Amino acid sequence: MRWTPVLLAALAGLEAAHAHGDEPHMNMVLPRLRNVEELRQKRAKYEPWNPPTVANKPRGDRTNRLSPRQVDNITLGDNDQCGGTFGRCADGFCCSSAGWCGQTAEYCSAPDCQINYGPGCDGNQKPSGPDTANDARPLKGSIPYGGLGIYDCENDGDVAVTYDDGPYIYTAAMLDAFKAHSAVATWFITGNNLGKGQINVAYRDVIKRMFDEGHQIASHTWSHENLDQMTLAQRKNQMVYNEIAFMDILGFYPTYMRPPYSICGPECQQQMVDLGYHITYFDLDTQGYLHTDPSQIQFSLNLWDAAMVARSACNGSYLHIEHDIHQQVATTFTNHMLDSIVANGWKAVTVGECLGDPPENWYRGNVPSYNFKISAVSPLACTSTRITSSSSATSTRTSTSSRSTSTALAVSRDGSCGATGAKTCQGSVFGNCCSKNGWCGSTAAYCGTGCQSKYGTCGSQSSSSSVGSGTASNTRSSAPSSGTGTRSATGSSSAPSSTSTRPVSTDGQCGVGKGRQCTGSAFGNCCSQYNFCGSTSGHCGTGCQSAFGTCNAGSASSAGSSAGSSSRASSAAAGGSSTASSTGALPTSSAPTGVSSTNPAAATNTRLSTSGECGGTNGFNCLGSNFGDCCSPYNYCGNTTAHCDTGCQSTFGRCSGSGTGTNVQVSLNGNCGPANGGASCAGSSFGNCCSSYGYCGSSSAFCGTGCQSGFGTCA
Question: Bias category Polar residues: which stretches (predicted)?
């Protein structure tokens, strides 16, 4: 925000008023209203960084640097300073984030106002409306309540767009944009934050319009506090106050909520069950709250565009998060996103719809029925994700691997395989081999002893072709076509296959920056302009990088009379055949000079991760999990360089890149250096520099004189 001369003069007078006669006084840090650009940046103080397409899951064992706030015994102070040993302000006064008592928005606005020390804080003000505190709360439907939360959608082709922190001054115009695109979203509404006023006073019409136009309304608490730093009574008020405001506006209130800062520990999780709420997170964060300037928003646009080619509407879905309190998000990003959803054949839906939850379960109270149907403007890019006989294809390839005998089976989309789910790994993004434990992959652990040839290929390498004939259809193509096998085993195109000796992508990323090619990858043979492997026109058409894979729209499907085979060695050309060359280990997933490694302990660890978490006290293993083979320093499974490179835990999965085997301990609590177990700030959410005092940060105080270069970066 910008200070006006009048306001600065007023604040100067305020400082003078705090000087008691001629006595010396401290150089006061004046209270201020944190501008909206800073609000979401508070997130970094609470949760570890994850790649934008990985769910930022709250950690149950997170170190809480503040004790839960107990307010019963806080004494009245001098109504000058507040907080800590100064006590609380007088009734009707607010305690600013800087610890001063006052009554204007600079003191009272949530979430900065300290609700334990400021009775007048916006977060302490109960709205007018029917009290819901004692309502019966039966748990309706099959969607889980409370617990670890919801992270992704169930239905392919769905994008559940969600916005936090509003409504705000930009929201009404955003509703216009959604209506123009026949799209809907879910709005996680905060009741009284940023000094905007209570929603049932200032935003009644906007919220009514949301519901009338088919959007889903959900709760983001009353005043956007950290729920893990509250008493049970305070946390209940955060939910009930919002309910009262919704009842006053609509006559009903939501059953879906998202915790501020994505923080809701075990006590909070159970209380959400008691209050009847589905805890909702996300699996795609385009980070608009960190790039709010017009010169920065392109970063978020690029993240969105990359997501659109990383998955297609026929084989994926997204539960997306953004924030409608930022102008660039509300205008530039939202319009681009909606255009892209339509152009790529996705369907913008509510969270409830993407989970298959009937609308009557989304609310409590007098809920009118939804009597409209929102659908994608453009047709879906593909119509089937099953292997069928509609694409008869005969293959005469040779290989060192066992022939897959799986036909007419669904291709695995969750990494599981075998008789139980009747799913094959052949053509899946996880790898073509079905392990003895029923998981898809491409290493010796999957393709060797115990490999189930009925549900994929077996032998030295998962992407190697099989002897004999197969019946398949490309799971990413928009229509059945005649071809030579599944997507991951063939690369026929109007253009020749890549003959590069570069490593084959194992995480779906490609191009100059990654040094990896798509030819022979499980993700598709084309390297898009955004450096992702795939088989759609978005990957194989305009901007496709022929040096890192095949190009032209038909490269994912077999075409013409010639059959092209690809292998991990990438030595095939169109019309030729090749034999897969493999050592049984995956190629590097980062720099070309990196080395892929799997610790023997990981190869024999049978505690397979089923939640995406790894390592830690439970010792869960990522190798063969649905989430990726690498265990990040933050104990989450994945396949990106953030998971597989520096800090990757090889004891619990595969690691690759320059950081292989180092197992660097990244600071999760802001402490660093020798006195803190050798924790490094590099990659930490607190900043990359380790100060002389052993704390992570990014200012000159951390990165300048005394900075410990052995535990992070220094200026």
Answer: 592-604
CA distances from 638 to 57, 227, 336, 534, 633 (A): 13, 28, 28, 18, 11
446 — pLDDT class (breaks 50, 70, 90): confident
Tell me: the pLDDT tens digits for 586-633? 223 333 333 445 567 777 777 888 777 787 667 788 888 877 788 887
What are the structure tokens assigned to 215, written together? 């959007």
680 CA to centre of own chain:
24
Within 10 A of 402 (CB to CB), how many other CB atoms are there? 18
Catalytic residue among 181, 320, 323, 643: 323
The residues with which 323 forms a beta bridge, in sequence order, are 164
- Residue ranges matching CATH 3.30.60 in the chain: 674-711
Write down the CATH number for the domain with range 158-365: 3.20.20.370
Question: Strand runs (DSSP E) across 541-686, as ranges?
Answer: 597-598, 630-631, 637-638, 654-655
Pairing between strand 363-365 and 252-254?
Answer: antiparallel
* Of residues 497, 492, 515, 517, the one with CA closest to residue 505: 517
Query: For residue range 371-423, what is the model confidence (pLDDT) as tens digits?
Result: 555 544 544 545 433 322 233 323 333 333 344 443 467 777 667 788 877 88
323 annotated active-site:
yes
The model's pTM: 0.51
Number of H helices and E strands in the chain, helices first, is: 17, 26
Q: What are phi and psi of 176, to 5 degrees?
A: -60, -45
pLDDT tens for residues 180-213?
998 999 999 999 999 999 999 999 999 999 999 9
Residues 6+ apart with CB under 8 A from 666: 48, 633, 634, 647, 679, 680, 681, 682, 683, 684
The active-site residue, picked from 164, 228, 324, 357, is 164
Dmax (CA) of the chain: 96
The span from the CA of 491 to the CA of 422, in Å, is 26
Domain(s) labelled CATH 3.20.20.370 in the chain stretch across 158-365
CA distance 444 to 458: 9
Q: Report how far residue 680's alpha carbon sits from residue 106's, in angstroms, rounded to the nearest whole number.
A: 37
Query: Measured in whole angstroms, how far is the alpha carbon of residue 351 from the centre of its chain?
Result: 15
- Before 600, cis peptide (omega within 30)? no
